[in-house]
Design a protein that fits this description.
Elements: H1 2-25, E1 32-35, E2 40-43, E3 48-57, E4 63-71, E5 79-85, E6 88-89, E7 96-101, E8 106-115, E9 120-130, E10 137-146, H2 156-183
Parallel strand pairs: 2-10
Antiparallel strand pairs: 1-3, 3-8, 4-7, 4-9, 5-6, 5-8, 9-10
Length: about 180
């Protein structure tokens, strides 16, 4: 038992000395990639689109990363915007998170954007910054276009007006056909 504790203590001391020596010599290898296959989408009113991005630690040392979400410019409050990182989804008010990623490991960042009531565009930037080497930073801007031809139906009167317009258009087409049939 004493031998296991002794060897464990020696191993901890050696790894502490190795870490301290690396820090003193400045030979930590911090590097990462931050990518996404899709950065721009178009959606109808009412849909929420999920963008997926991948943070990969390409260095030989573990690192922690600060992930920041920024709206450019701020979207209307009716829009839904949130992100998930490190397996945790953040409420709308949280725009920053810190995630640890081991050497050669990957972490996924998800960004959900949608509008239930208002058409328009949303532009959201996710920035990833290394804490091991604060000079390393990468950003991706995601764009969502909600169809401009959408008609938001937010209450029963809106639905009633929409159905009335569709019925009126149908009656007009029937009347036009009857006019053409009488003319021939």
């Amino acid at each position: 038992m004493f031998g296991a504790i002794f060897f464990s203590s020696v191993f901890c001391f050696i790894s502490f000395v190795t870490t301290a020596q690396k820090a003193e010599a400045g030979i930590f290898n911090f590097a990462f990639t931050y990518t996404s296959a899709d950065t721009e989408e178009t959606a109808p009113l009412g849909d929420t689109i999920e963008f997926t991005s991948i943070l990969t630690n390409t260095g030989s040392d573990s690192d922690n990363y600060v992930i920041t979400m920024t709206e450019n410019p701020p979207t209307p409050p009716e829009w839904i915007i949130y992100f998930c990182s490190g397996g945790i989804c953040h409420p709308l008010t949280d725009t920053t998170d810190t995630v640890g990623v081991g050497a050669g490991k990957t972490s996924y960042i998800f960004l959900d954007i949608g509008s239930r009531v208002k058409c328009g565009d949303a532009s959201v930037t996710i920035t990833v910054k290394s804490l091991g080497n604060p000079g390393l930073s990468k950003s991706i801007t995601f764009l969502l276009h909600v169809h401009s031809e959408c008609i938001p139906v937010t209450n029963r009167w809106g639905l009633f007006i929409l159905i009335s317009l569709l019925c009126a258009a149908g009656f007009y087409l029937i009347w036009k056909r009857a006019q053409l049939a009488r003319a021939t």
